[in-house]
Every structure is written in structure tokens, then in C-alpha cells.
């Protein structure tokens, strides 16, 4: 089995294309690009730089992957972009390579859906099964946990962390970290509670969801300081792995603050 390359495509010497891959009309493939087995590149796709595209991924027209970052500190360092397996990258998506200041690599996990016009900036670290809806944009150094969804036309500030299974509502501006399982929305995004719809769709048990709700209400309650409430959640739910993931996320070092609920909004 060999790759199928349309005669109008430009494939530079040195590029590696896996068996069963299809490279469509007017695509441009750089000399350090690696395309996995059974990938499909529709017309006018550009893969540049040191870009690795995982097996069985599909890239749609006018997507540009692996070009240099939009970072004035970038000085031509030989950075990389890695995209996992079975990803679907729709029209006009842009994903940039990393920088020296961010570990030299941008990563996108397996089974991600990156919809039309979305942007993933340099040094972002994207988990598995993540969805970026149309025209969502991630600034540099953003991390997104597994199964998170970033709504259409949302913007995420550089260095922000989005926890696993979190939901960012459409047209939100996210400038603070979002807890795992959380749901945020707003012109300056505020925490609206847990992503209950997402948790139910992914098969989380009723008991686990109830435990998360109890931990959430305690963590964002009114009694004591936030640190005291965090310690209480850690102690009371020590045997619950989901709550401990939330606690670990909050305790982890971050350059951004934590997205909070509106003071007049219930949990």
C-alpha cells in the first residue's frame, strides 16, 4: 500500500508520507513534515515546519499547520508541532509550532475536532477528545484537558489552563483558569457551575456527579477563606478521584487566577 499524491500537490524532498495517505490538489508539504498512515488531506492544505500528523487524521481545505508562531520573541528556533491520531481539522484552521520559551513544541492529542477557523497558538498543549468550535482562538501556552469543549467565537488568554471535561460557552473571553468539569461563559467568563450535560453524556455515574456537586458547593461557598475551603474539600473527598483531580488542578502552579462564580449566582 502506498500514498496517493495529486499531481498538483507540492511535496518537498524529505517529507514522509505514510501508507494509505491521500494528499489532495494544491497541497503544500514541507521537507520536515511527517504524515501518518491513512491520513487524508483535502485540497489546498499547507503543512510546514517540523509537523507530525498522526494516523487516520483528516485535514480540510485551507488549513495551515506548523508555520512559525505569531510571537515577537520567536527567533527562528527549530520548534515542532505534533498532532495526534484520528483528528479532524476543518477549513481555515491554523495551528502554530512552539517556541523556546514554551518547551519548543505545540501538541494536539488524539481524536480532537478542530472546527472551521479555529486557532491554536504556539506552545499550546491540547488533550484528547477536545473540541474547538468555529473560530475559537487559544493564545500561546494554553493547556486544555481531555474532553474539554471550547465554544464558538471564544478567546482564551495566553497561559490559561482549561481543565478536563470543562465547557467554555460560545463568545466567551476566558482570562483565568477553568476548573475540571466546570462550565464558564461570559464577556469576561464566569463560572456557572459544573458541566453537568457533558458529565452525563460521557457516562459519569450519578454518585460521582453528586459528589462533584457537593465539592463544588463547598469550594465556592462563603464560609472561611478559599484556601480553607480547598483544604476541607481535599480532606472530605480524599477517596474520590474526580474531586482529587479538581483539587490537584487548583493547587497546581499557574500564572493565571482561577475563574470564579458571580457572587450573586448560585452553584
Amino acid at each position: 500500500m502506498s500514498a496517493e499524491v495529486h499531481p498538483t500537490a507540492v511535496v518537498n524532498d524529505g517529507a514522509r508520507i505514510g501508507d494509505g495517505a491521500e494528499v489532495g490538489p494544491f497541497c503544500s508539504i514541507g521537507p520536515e513534515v511527517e504524515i501518518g498512515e491513512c491520513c487524508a488531506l483535502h485540497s489546498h492544505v499547507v503543512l510546514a515546519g517540523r509537523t507530525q500528523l498522526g494516523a487516520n487524521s483528516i485535514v480540510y481545505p485551507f488549513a495551515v499547520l506548523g508555520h512559525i508562531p505569531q510571537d515577537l520573541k520567536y527567533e527562528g528556533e527549530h520548534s515542532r508541532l505534533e498532532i495526534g491520531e484520528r483528528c479532524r481539522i476543518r477549513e481555515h484552521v491554523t495551528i502554530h509550532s512552539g517556541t523556546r520559551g514554551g518547551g519548543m513544541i505545540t501538541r494536539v492529542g488524539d481524536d480532537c475536532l478542530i472546527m472551521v477557523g479555529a486557532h491554536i497558538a504556539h506552545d499550546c498543549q491540547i488533550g484528547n477528545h477536545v473540541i474547538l468550535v468555529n473560530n475559537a482562538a487559544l493564545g500561546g501556552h494554553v493547556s486544555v484537558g481531555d474532553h474539554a469543549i471550547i465554544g464558538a467565537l471564544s478567546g482564551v488568554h495566553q497561559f490559561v489552563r482549561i481543565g478536563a471535561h470543562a465547557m467554555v460557552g460560545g463568545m466567551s473571553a476566558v482570562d483565568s483558569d477553568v476548573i475540571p468539569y466546570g462550565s464558564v461563559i461570559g464577556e469576561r467568563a464566569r463560572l456557572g457551575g459544573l458541566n453537568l450535560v457533558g458529565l452525563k453524556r460521557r457516562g459519569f455515574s450519578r454518585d460521582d456527579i453528586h459528589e462533584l456537586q457537593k465539592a463544588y458547593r463547598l469550594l465556592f461557598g462563603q464560609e472561611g477563606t478559599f484556601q480553607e475551603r480547598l483544604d476541607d474539600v481535599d480532606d472530605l473527598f480524599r477517596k474520590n478521584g474526580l474531586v482529587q483531580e479538581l483539587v490537584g488542578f487548583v493547587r497546581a502552579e499557574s500564572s493565571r487566577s482561577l475563574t470564579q462564580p458571580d457572587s450573586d449566582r448560585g452553584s
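The first helix runs from residue 196 to 201. Helices lie at 196-201, 206-219, 226-236, 241-251.
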